[in-house]
Structure formats: C-alpha cells, structure tokens
Amino acid sequence: MTQYVYGFAEGRREMADLLGGKGANLAEMTRLGLPVPPGFTVTTKACRVFLETGTEPDELGFEVARALAALERAAGRTLGDSADPLLVSVRSGSRYSMPGMMETVLDIGLSDASVQGLAKISGQERFAWDSYRRLVQMFGHTVLGVDTELFERALAERRTLRGATDDRDLDAQDLALLTEEFKEIIHRTTGEEFPQDPVEQLHRALRAVFSSWNGERAHVYRRREHISDDLGTAVNIQAMVFGNLSPDSGTGVAFTRDPTTGARGVYGDYLPYAQGEDVVAGVRNAVPLQELERLDPRSYLALTEHLRTLEAHYQDLCDVEFTIERGRLWILQTRVGKRTAEAAFRIAYDLLEEGVIGRRAALSRVDGDQLARLMFPRFATRPSDVPAPRAPAAAPGPPGGGAVSDSAEAVRGAAAGERTVLVRRETTPDDLPGMIAAEAVLTSRGGKTSHAAVVARGMGKVCVCGAEPLTVDPTARQFTTPEGVVVREGDVISVDGTSGTVHLGALSLTDSAVRQSLESGEQSDLLSVAVDRALSHADAVRRLEVRANADTPEDAACARRFGAQGIGLCRTEHMFLGERKHLVEAMILAVDGTAREQALAALLPLQRADFTGILAAMDGLPVTIRLLDPPLHEFLPDRTQLAVRIAASADPDPRDVHLLAAVERLHERNPMLGLRGVRLGLSVPGLVAMQVRAIAEAVADRIRDGGDPRAEIMIPLVGTVEELRLVRAEAESVLSEVFARTGTEVTCPIGTMIELPRAALTAGRIARAADFFSFGTNDLTQTTWGLSRDDAEASFFPAYLDKGIFTISPFESLDEEGVGRLITLAVEEGRAANSRLTLGVCGEHGGDPDSIHFFHRAGLDYVSCSPFRIPAARLEAGRAALGEPRSR
Ligand code: ADP
Ligand code: MG
Ligand code: MG
Questions:
Q1: I need a surface site. Which of 2, 146, 412, 416 has the fewest CB within 10 A?
Q2: Whole-angstrom Cα distance, residue 429 to residue 101?
Q3: Which residue has the CA at smallest separation from atom 20 of ligand 1?
C-alpha cells in the first residue's frame, strides 16, 4: 500500500522526490539531532493524486489523523485545544526550491476559543491575538482566495488610527479588533465564516497548498527554471514555534558562507519580535546576524554550531531559517543555498582546499553558464561616483536600463526591446514576471536574504536589495536619492550588483577580472584562481576537444588565448564583402568564362591573404575552412532599391540595369532552401577551384615561412554523396596541382557538414567520401523541424514556449529527441563506414552546456563555438566527461 504521510523521523535527505526538498531536509535535520519542531510530511505523490483527480487519495485522511495524533502526543497538546492549543504550520515544499512561489499557512489551530487559551497559557495576550490575526489573514488569502490588499489596508488603517508606525506598536486590543475586521472581510467577500474547527482548518489548508502548485507565479517560475509541471508539492505540517512571542524572541535567516561572494564566514539577518515570513518578505529591515550575538549570545552560539554541523554534513553552502522563542533556538528549514556565479566558484574550490569535497564534486558545483556570466564586462567606477550609499550586494553583474516602477511596466518594456531596472520598495512573488523581464532589480528594503535577492540569485539576475537611503514612491513612479535627486520612470540607472551600488545614468564598462585572467593566464584575485582550477581540472578529464568559430586572425588569436584547440568553422562569406563586393558582382555578372575567370583571379590573392593570416594565428592547430555557403544574391544590392534607382533616372546606368537583371534572376522565394552551399560550387564554374587554390597557396606560403598550417576544407549543405564526390574531385586536383608546383608535402583533409536530414540519413555513404563530418546544428534544426529560424522566432515561438510545446528553443539547446537522433544515427553509420572519420559540431549549440553534454554522449571528437564561449565549453566538456547531469 502507498504510504502518503511520513513523520520527520522517518524521512531522509535522499527522499526529496517524495518528501520535497523542505520535507527531506527537515527529516535529515531531525535525524542529525538538530532542534526541529516535530511534524510530518504529506508526499508529493498525494499531491499528484489530488491534482489529477481533484480529490485526496482515500487513505490520506486516515494517515493524517494518525500522524497528527502522534504529533499531539509528542507535543503534549491537542490541535486547537481551547485551554492549551497545539498550533501547526502547513508548508509547501516541492522537489526543487521555489522560494515564495507557493503557499504556507501558519498558526493553524487558533479559533475564538483557543486564542483565549493561548493568551492565558503564554501570559502574552498581544502575542495570541497577533497570531490569530495572522492566521485569519493567511487562511483568508490562501484558502479562501481573498485579496491580501484588503487585509493590508485594514491593518494600515488601524496603524494610522493608533498613530503607530509599526505593527509592533499595536496592542492586544487593536489586534483583537483587527481579527474581527479580518473575519468580517472574509464573510463579506466570500459569504463564508472563518472556520472554527481546527481539523477543518488543517485539511483545507492542506488542499490549498496542494493547489498552490498550479498558482500563476509558481507556473511562471517553473517555466523560467525549466522545472516540470508534473512533480507536485509535498506539504509539511509542523508544530509552531513563536518568534513573535516576546521582544526576546525573533526569527531569521542564516548562511554558512556569503552567498554573493562566496567568502567564508557565517552570515545572515535577524528580526526580533517577528514571525518567519516577515524576514523573507523584506517588510521590515532586519539586523545583521552579528547583532544577534550581542542580543542573545547563547542562541547565537548554538546557531553557529548548527550551521557548522549542517555545512559539514551537506558539504556545501547551506542556508537556514531559524526562530528563537524566548531564548530557545529552533531550526525550521535548511537547504543547499542558491548562490551567485562568483560564489559558486569560490565556494566549490574553497571546500576543495579545505578537504571537505573532492575535485569531482567541486567541478560538479560550477557550470559553463556561470563562467560565461563572470566574463561579462563590469562597470568602470570608483566609490566616488556613487550617489546612493551602498546596500547589500545581493547578486552581481553590471547591467542598467530605464527605471520602472512595477512588474507590468518591466514586462511591457522587455516586449518592446527596452532594458529596464525594476525599482520597488520590496518585491513579492507576484513581481516575478517583472523580475524576469528586467535587467536588474533594485529595492529600498530588505537584505541579501529577501525574497527578491534569493530569486534574483537563482535566476542569475543582478539585484541590489535594501538600498535604504533611497525613497521609493511607487504611486508617483519615481524614487529620490539622499541628495534629493528625483529619478523618474524611464530615467536610466545602472545597478552594480557586485558592490551593491546604484548609479544615475549609464556607466562605461570594463573587462571582468575573470576574462582578463583567462586571456592572460595570470590570476590576480581569489575568484580567478578558483576559475583557473576548475578549468584545469575540466581540461584534464574531458574527452571533447573545443575549437572556435572564427573568421579573422584577431578572433582566432583571441580564441586561442581562451584555450581553443583549433578552428571548427571558418566562414568565408565575410571575405566577399566590403571593398571586395564589386569583384563578387563582377563574378556574378560575368557574361562569359573569361570575364568570370578575371573576376575570380582578382579575388584569389585577397582570399589567400585571409587564409594565411588565420593559419598563422592557429599555427599547429586545425583550421576548418568552409567554402562559400550563402546564396549569391546576398552579395548583390537590394532589389527594390535598385529598381527605384533605375525608375527615377532618365538615363539609368547600364550597369544598374544589368545588376537588376541578375538580382531578378537570382531572386528566390526560399533562399534558405535554394541555391546555396555545395549547390553554388556546382553551379558557378571556378568558384570552388578559386577558394581551394587560395587555401592551398596559403598553406604552401606558411610552410615556406616555417609554419605548421593544418587547413581542412569543408563543403556545406551536402545532401548526397554525389555532390561531395564531384566537389572533392575538383578540390583534390587543385590541391595536388598547387602542392606539386610548390613542392608542398602535406595532406589537407576534405570533409562535409551534416546539416540536412538526408545527409544524416545517408551518412554511411557520405562518410566514404569524407575525412570528417561537422554537424551544422543550426541548419539541421531548421531543416529537421521544417522552419526558418528568423521567421519562427518572430512569429510563433513565444506562443510555443508559453504553451510548453518547447521548454527551451531548439536553437538554444539541441533537440535531442529529434535532431539528436539524426546526429546519433549519422555518427554510428559514418564511423562504421569510415573508422578514421573525425566528428565535430560547429552550430551555436557547440557552446550550449546542455547540448555539449549530449555531444559528449553521442561520441563526437570536438565542439566548436564562438571564442567567448570557449572557457564555458571547456568546463562543460569536463563536467560531461564526469557524467555530471546537466539539468533537472
Ligand atoms: P517558504 O517556502 O515560502 O519559505 P515556509 O514554509 O518556509 O515558506 O514558511 C514561511 C515562513 O514561516 C518561514 O519563515 C518559516 O520559517 C516560517 N514557519 C514555517 N513553519 C513554522 C513553524 N512551525 N513555526 C514557526 N515558523 C514557521
Ligand atoms: Mg522557507
Ligand atoms: Mg549551414
């Protein structure tokens, strides 16, 4: 029989699929002997049944009753008892941490009767009513769907009435009146009475938490984080402990290391006289943990000890939620904490150095996307440029944009292609769409542990949280700096998440230290040292080589500094542009063979010089040169412009008339599927010969100059082996002619791109005429799906992503199921036919972490990507070799 309920003592950390992350970790901490309030977990399985059928599984009611009875026995109190009530929280918690995205109801078990009992037994009337009004509010919102604003407004009115600035200034009587008001609000808006039966409260809260899995913001978050919609959430029912009991109680969040920089040392926020959710909401500014050391040294000492225990046990950065009830410390949650890219590298390699984890674990904790982020430019600033004093830097990076006052405006801006910074007093989970849309988030309240900061860190967004000196006025849609400068919506600001500073206007950027150290090979800071160690380790274990896509000697040199082991794709088309355009026009317009030969002969020395430069920059390493690929009309003037020019002139230039005829002749409805790639080489006489001659002569020149050129010739868009055979024969005859004439003794491999499904399907035949395959995954994705990328991305892709048909664009991350299958087939049949075949990939996917893992598994020899992605690709290739799973 399926077990739907587990006591905290029954679970383990490894059971997160079933118990959710929160439940599994509560169980783990219970086993470790940490002070966790007792409770039990309702499994994700029960949630899935509920979501599928609309009702709970039959056994659940019974199992919950039994677990509750056990909890009551352990606590020595009965849920909602009128003399001495046990109160519980009902907390969401799925497999993957989704901070604040689902619901939790606290203080379940309070009623008109038990609030009196609680007041009497605790001797704190104010506390009892504070808890009751919180319950009515949370229950009203979460279970009964009442707009929280209504409660917040009533609360604000009560504060005004009493001249109070803070909820803490309201006394027991105020809170009792407020509770009545809240119940009235519920009755008015739902027609229902707030339920007085504690068991009914519990069950309805349980169902509401199940349902919050499908809430709007949970949905948005899962999309963004690529978490499956099918997992469901577990629910944790746990005895309440009270940070709002008295001024010497309180609640807080702590980290075992700094989640922003990765620096060693305990770190966090504490909020006296408050219940848990007040800290993460960032409603009131918490004090740093060091303050707790002064306020309550015993609890502080106990907390730091538990943090040490947890870090040693989880062997990683942990964050915890804790509550102190009259000097007694309770731990309410822990998880392996979200961190910035910088912190990820620092922490992994510090833990390695400390001997806590091994090299393999260290490499598994960092990834290519993080490394790429660390290579972004930073602001070039000095402290004197800072108008707003420093705030806790919550998530690093350099962006800026126009200030916006709410989530909707950020979303609108992003849709219009604008860069924005979302400026709020504090964020709530409902701001999630705006946080995704904005470049950066700035709040005047809260700290590193606020919801905004946690979510931003998880998303790799820049965030400055708690810039207290700023006065944010959402109604007027502006904020004011301490100097009195008013920043209105649309004014450009720059947010430096690394230093926690805000600057008016756009700032100039400077190279990141990580990028500089990668290029120079010298490490000047701790972060660069950590990155260097990660990369050396990855290089030592990876099987995939990493080459660059580079078309110029400068790019080739840059790629080489980043660790490229050759060029996987050198496109020749840009070599046909600019000054040389007229030569290309002459080639296209040539009326006879002689004119064409002349035009090609003029191009030859220019191409040769291009190749010589690139081969020199990549001396000793392979350089895969692709013959001309795009349709010829791309090199001709625009058809409409040309026609207009001719029409507007009384005596049109005959050259223009001639050109227009050519443009019209070459015009295609579907250029992507038209005269391009190998088809060009087979239709324009002399083109292949000219390009190959330029390559061969460049090779000969380099050898004469004492170099070690390793050119490879790549034929694009082959669909059948016949095409390759013909072009190959032509290329080979040119190569042997040039090499014989110059006395050059090298071989120059000739291979093909695999970028049409037919090529993949006939790879066994093609492989017999090829020395290498290079998968052109951009075109292969387009032709496999039968869509053109530019058209599709502009039209239906957003809808597809929204409807979940794609979780990610197949152009960003390789579609393993479809395109990947073709690749696997081509690899197998290609290798079977030609055991010496080299296999690589040169589409943009070559730099995408998930895709790199696939290419590793598919058995390719190398990936090729843009120079800037090379360090990330090296890292991911290493991780792939260790069999590290890339994503969920
Ligand atoms: P989230 O996933 O949004 O953090 P939680 O379930 O952790 O939601 O709960 C919200 C807040 O309530 C947290 O600050 C948590 O520490 C606090 N809380 C939850 N359960 C209890 C409890 N039994 N006693 C006291 N505080 C609690
Ligand atoms: Mg929590
Ligand atoms: Mg292509």
A1: 416
A2: 6
A3: 89
Residue nearest to atom 13 of ligand 1 (CA): 276
Fold topology of 376-510: Glucose Oxidase; domain 1 (3.50.30)
**For range 478-497, the mean pLDDT:** 86
Fold of 47-57+64-239: Acyl-CoA Binding Protein (1.20.80)
pLDDT digits (tens, 9 = 90+) for 273-287: 988 877 766 656 788
Active-site residue flag, 219: no
The CA 764 to ligand 1 mean position distance, Å, reads: 60
Burial of residue 20 (number of CB atoms within 10 Å: 0-12, 13-18, 19+): buried
Among the residue ranges 220-234, 289-303, 760-774, the one predicted with the least confidence is 220-234
CA distance 88 to 79: 8
CB atoms within 10 A of CB 309: 17
Q: Which atom of ligand 1 is nearest to the CA of 332?
A: 16
Instruction: Check pLDDT > 70 for residue 384.
Output: no
Is 187 tagged catalytic?
A: no
* Alpha-carbon span 366 to 344, nearest angstrom: 6
* Ligand 1 nearest atom to the CA of residue 321, by list position: 16
Pocket test for ligand 1, best of 221, 277, 335, 430 (most atoms within 8 A of CB): 277
pLDDT-based confidence at residue 496 (cuts at 50, 70, 90): confident
Q: Pairing mode, if any, of strands 509-510 and 378-379? A: antiparallel
Q: What is the pLDDT of residues 670-724, one digit of tens each?
A: 888 999 999 999 999 999 999 999 999 999 999 999 999 999 999 999 999 999 9
Atom of ligand 1 nearest to the CA of 100: 3
For residue 276, the CA-to-ligand 2 centroid distance in Å is 8
Q: What is the pLDDT of residues 825-834, one digit of tens each?
A: 999 999 999 9
Q: Report the alpha-carbon distance of residue 352 to residue 346 in Å, rounded.
A: 10
Alpha helices in 675-788 (DSSP H): 678-683, 687-704, 721-742, 757-761, 763-767, 777-785
pLDDT reported for residue 387: 40
Of all protein residues, the one whose alpha carbon is nearest to atom 22 of ligand 1 is 240
Please state which of the four CATH numbers 3.30.1490.20, 3.50.50.60, 1.10.4160.10, 3.20.20.60 is assigned to the domain occupying 548-575+593-627+687-881.
3.20.20.60
CB 678 within 8 A of CB 718: yes
Q: What is the pLDDT of residues 33-61, one digit of tens each?
A: 999 999 999 999 999 999 999 999 999 99
**pLDDT cut 70: percent of the chain above it:** 95
Count Cβ atoms within 10 A of the Cβ of residue 860 and give its class: 0-12 exposed, 13-18 middle, 19 or more buried.
buried
13 is written with which tokens?
């950390």
* Contact assessment for residue 272 and residue 344, using Cβ atoms and an 8 Å cutoff: no
| Candidate from 157-161, 191-195, 506-510 with smallest mean pLDDT | 506-510
Give residues (CB < 6 A) around ligand 1: 37, 89, 91, 100, 104, 106, 238-241, 276-277, 280, 321, 323, 332-333
Name the catalytic one among 558, 842, 845, 865. 842
Distance 498 CA to ligand 1 centre (A): 29
Q: Which tokens belong to 340?
A: 């910035």
Q: How many other C-beta atoms are found inside a 10 Å radius of the C-beta of residue 863?
A: 30
Question: How much of the chain exceeds pLDDT 90, in percent?
Answer: 68
289, 305 contact by CB (below 8 A): no
Q: Per CATH, the architecture of 250-336 is what?
A: 2-Layer Sandwich (3.30)
Nearest ligand by distance to the CA of 844:
3
Query: How many CA atoms, within 13 angstroms, populate the side-chain half-sphere of residue 337?
Result: 34
Ligand nearest to the CA of 103: 1
Catalytic residue among 141, 451, 633, 853: 451
Ligand 1 midpoint to CA 333 (Å): 8
